[in-house]
Design goal:
single chain; two-stranded antiparallel sheet; extended
């Protein structure tokens, strides 16, 4: 279908963008040396990922009422956040009732 084709095109474009960003970060931190600085590059990529995630959460929660408790936060993560990122809800949520939660997505690699 047209929607599925568009979805596949979006994912492909995102993968190419991701590869180019990683490549650019590693090239810009090599400073003409053969050996790149992996720790520094990973730090830069982690900072970028943190900022992108923070921006996504801010955008998704802009019109959402304040969360009342952990259960509201987990519902948001399992339904809204996961759906926006992976286009599906989480498959399973487990807890030990002591503040530890395990989210399971059967398609997550």
């Amino acid at each position: 279908t047209l929607f599925r084709s568009q979805l596949m095109a979006d994912e492909t474009l995102f993968e190419f963008l991701h590869m180019e960003i990683v490549s650019h970060v590693y090239k810009s931190h090599s400073h003409g040396q053969e050996e790149q600085e992996p720790a520094k590059c990973l730090g830069v990529l982690e900072q970028m990922g943190f900022r992108v995630g923070q921006g996504l959460i801010e955008r998704l929660t802009k019109e959402t009422p304040t969360f009342k408790d952990e259960l509201d936060i987990l519902k948001f993560i399992c339904k809204d956040l996961w759906t926006n990122i992976f286009r599906k809800q989480i498959d399973n949520l487990r807890t030990n009732h002591q503040g530890t939660y395990v989210l399971q997505d059967n398609r997550f690699h």
